[in-house]
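Appendix B, example 12.
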Amino acid sequence: MKRILIIAGEVSSDMHAANLVNDIRSLDKDMSFFGLGGERMQASGIKLLENIVHLAFIGPGGLFKSYIALKNIYNSLIKHICDDPPDCAILIDYAEFNLRVARELKKLGVPIIYYISPQVWAWGLWRINTIRRLVDKMLVFFEFEEKLYTKHGVDTTFVGHPLLNIVKPTESKDEVLKRLSIDKDAKIVGILPGSRISEIKTILPIMLDSAKLILQRYKQEQIEFVLPLASTIDEEYIRGIISKTKINIKIIKSDVYNAISICDCAVVTSGTATLETAVLNVPMAIVYKTNFLTYILTKNVIKLPFIGLVNIVAGEKIVPEFLQYQARPDSIAEYIVSLLKDKNILSSIKEKFAKIKDSLGEPGASRRAASEIVKFLQP
């Protein structure tokens, strides 16, 4: 039986890893999996050496805070794989950690598959040479990634985006509204503050101040706010923050995509959630603010004119980005109110979202990735 090491360090990566392993097992049962990840990986039957999802960091500032814990986990993992090397490694995103592990795996002659590409297109191409030396097979979500890696000599296959199988409502809008006791004539604004405490501490207060201004400025009809809650975040913690504002916000647990799907528009923290919101055809404002150290260290490193994933995939800024010092509640509220008032703007954005969704390939990405991995591992 082949032993496969798999590492995922983010909430979304943990989900993709669990789905991928389930698809691999459906094609080849002669494999066992162990590694680092989160609750979804563990629930899928992967032997988890450590849960590292709760240590997820953002940029160098976040890395410094988690350094000691990650260093200990890294050292323990390297000892484990040196004592008993796996037959193959599947590394998922989490480049700062995973590429260090890849160097040690390469010394041991362990084949390396990378699923969910490091964002070399955002942080500069200097890292692509390292990837070419270390990675045997790259499986990517976006067509532009396949072209980029292939150009630089990396064996790469575009499998499409697994969000197309995952991000879809399970109920009609009327059913969701009824269950949440929301009037069908109300305008609904989503508040998506992220899946990390570090993000929420900084960004949620900005979103809540924006919500106050939206209520003041949009008086024609009833407005409802919904907050789909990431599984990593404690509900009582969020309620504590919201209670200080006296705004009525419905917190939705374990029903994220149904909650987003009923929104007329949303205020979204930059990250995968922007793409999920676009797939669900909900116009949005992207908001991001981080600590000063991380901002200074990354300001001159990011090589793209925008940071929102939905804009990167589109190749143009179709959604406004309110970043760092531009993340002002008055500006955010002004844009959201303009969306609520102007159906032409909403229609134009939704047309562009449809093109983004088409560019993500066909449903079945995880299954295609699993097939590529099984083929790669065949003698």
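The first helix runs from residue 11 to 27. The two ends are 13 Å apart (CA to CA).
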